[in-house]
Amino acid sequence: MNRLDPDKLSVEYKPGVTPVSPIIPRRYTLTHSDETAELFLTIGPEYDYSNINPMRDEVLGEWRFRNDRYIFFGRVYVNGEFGPIEAGIRNEIFIRELPLALEAIRYSDREFFRYNKFLTDANIYIYFESSYPKYDRVDYWGTFEDYYNGY
Fold it and tell me: Residue 1 pLDDT more than 50?
């Protein structure tokens, strides 16, 4: 797993959320800079579409309540206008980088997880959105406890 560098992480809370509440609606928009390797996380009641770039390499996530328990549901955009070769490359990049993205969310919202301890054991599901059936799927990615590094 890539290790998170907190010095390269910027976090912004939008009006309607605080560092500890609410659980729903609480949405995460994680983007990055290829030039500086910085990560930018916006936490708010809605996704921060203003920070999404044309390459669509963001990670979106939100808390949902299903079957009497909370889950974290994320989404990555594997392709649409991209061809099958590019979709395969993007799929592999997302698989490689998702642990870092989930660690960034866990670290950035650590007060939220301290206040809502039970959410560290919530299941994480990521939807790989693609027009190609081979890449269009929902995968299980463990729990946020798996992405905790002692901070």
Answer: no
Alpha carbons 99 and 138: distance in angstroms, whole number: 16
DSSP type of residue 24 = S
pLDDT in tens, 99-112: 999 999 999 999 99
Residue 94 located in a structural domain: yes
Domain count, the chain: 1
User: Is residue 1 included in any domain, yes or no?
Assistant: no
Q: Which helix (H) or strand (E) holds 74?
A: strand 69-77
Residue 122 CB: number of other CB atoms within 10 A?
Answer: 19
Shortest CA distance to 143 belongs to which of 75, 76, 71, 74? 71
pLDDT above 90 for 121: yes
pLDDT, residue 80, reads 63
DSSP code, position 2: P
pTM: 0.94
Expressed as residue numbers, the domain containing 95 is 6-147
For residue 91, tell me if it sits in a domain: yes
User: Contact, 134 vs 83, CB < 8 A?
Assistant: no
Mean pLDDT along residues 96-125: 97
Q: Is 102 part of any domain?
A: yes
